[in-house]
Design goal:
Elements: H1 2-40, H2 54-72, H3 81-84, H4 87-90, H5 94-97, H6 109-135, H7 139-166
């Protein structure tokens, strides 16, 4: 009987030791997972370090703002890929991309919000592309500039479309004048 109690005590001790070992292993894995969380949460993996060029950190901040504005205005988080690949949108300077046809009056309330968003997105795009130019042959920065330009183009199209819809339709000529004789 005494031998049986000793075996049970040894088994219990081993169970506690194994359980303690597993608890330590799980805690270590959880700690490593929290350390890696910023990268897996959508942040740029190479940008999580503090030794990154501050200009690239500015690009990330400005790009994130554009992304948030796009989402808050019911646009997709990123511009459509076809916009980022079209040379007619990517070659001209942002000052040209962001222009609407001439308008006589300032936008009304509905279009003012859309056009203010366009201005904000295009301002950030301009800053991103200026930084990308200063970084030279940095492919990552060039891609961020392309994406920002595409966002500017898309926001400009929304603003210009709103302004075009806002203009009163011209009255048809000769219709409804009451000059017809029966």
């Amino acid at each position: 009987m005494r031998h049986l109690n000793r075996l049970q005590l040894d088994a219990a001790l081993w169970g506690v030791l194994i359980g303690l070992g597993l608890a330590i292993a799980i805690a270590a894995c959880a700690s490593a997972r929290q350390t890696a969380a910023p990268e897996s949460a959508g942040a740029e993996p190479s940008m999580a370090r503090t030794d990154v060029d501050p200009r690239k950190q500015d690009i990330i901040r400005l790009s994130d703002e554009i992304r948030q504005w796009r989402i808050s205005s019911d646009m997709t988080a990123e511009p459509p890929v076809d916009l980022t690949q079209r040379p007619e949108y990517m070659q001209p300077p942002i000052k040209k991309i962001r222009q609407c046809p001439a308008q006589d009056e300032p936008p009304q309330d509905e279009c003012a919000d859309v056009c203010t968003l366009k201005d904000d997105i295009c301002d950030n795009a301009e800053r991103i592309c200026d930084i990308a130019d200063k970084l030279g042959d940095d492919e990552w920065a060039r891609e961020k500039c392309k994406s920002a330009k595409a966002s500017c183009k898309e926001a400009t199209d929304k603003c210009c479309g709103c302004l075009a819809d806002e203009k009163p339709a011209a009255a048809p000529t000769g219709a409804g004048t009451g000059s017809a004789v029966h």
